[in-house]
Amino acid sequence: MMSANLVRPRPVIDGYALLDMQPATGRTASVYKAVSLRDGSFVAIKALSASVEQGDFLEEAFRRETQALAELRHLNIVKMLDSGINADGVRYIILEWMESDLLARKKASPQFEWSAFWSSLGRPLAVAVAHAHSRDIAHRDLAPRNILFDGQNTPKVADFGISKLRRFLRSEQTLREFISPPFTPPEADDGSGILARDVFALVSLFCWYASPADLTTYEEVGSVDRRAKRTPLAG
Fold first, then answer.
1. For a surface tag, which of 114, 132, 168, 234 has the fewest beta carbons within 10 Å of its beta carbon?
2. Which of 39, 56, 101, 141 is catalytic?
3. How many CB atoms lie within 10 A of CB 39?
């Protein structure tokens, strides 16, 4: 979510030029559009900032996301190109550039038809989440802002900052306060059934996208059934 009141210094990353435009700013990071000085391609530079969260929190989020993305190579998961810490101590992740997110897509597409949705969005996201689960990686924060689209309208899962890698649970640091109701389950995340929590979130996302309303509570998501749909596509 953008924050007009939060000003963070623009990071300096060797090999990239940040474009002169407002970054997307959240609680733990700012995402800048940049151009590679090597090949001229656009990239996203995600710079984690200690101005809002403590350094140990950022270190843990950085570790989780880079470790997860290093394992996950899939058409429907945002690709990490590089990561590191710059001369100023800023942790950064360089990602492929994405053009929009699911929030914008829903606003631009008021009509809903199941077969078109499933083939273009539902199935790719389900396959991407299944791919992560096959490597014992749980996303834990599947929400509209974390579903992005590239220039070819390919949907991709993004932001593994609070993910859990079940083979690497060495840390006691918990990031579960950074969930996104009504998409993540309301029950406390005690570490058991963490893959099933992603399934809950994915189904909630599908209900939210199918509904003409902007569902904001668990009760609203639960009220959506197979008969609730938007006006079918013409033809």
1. 234
2. 141
3. 6
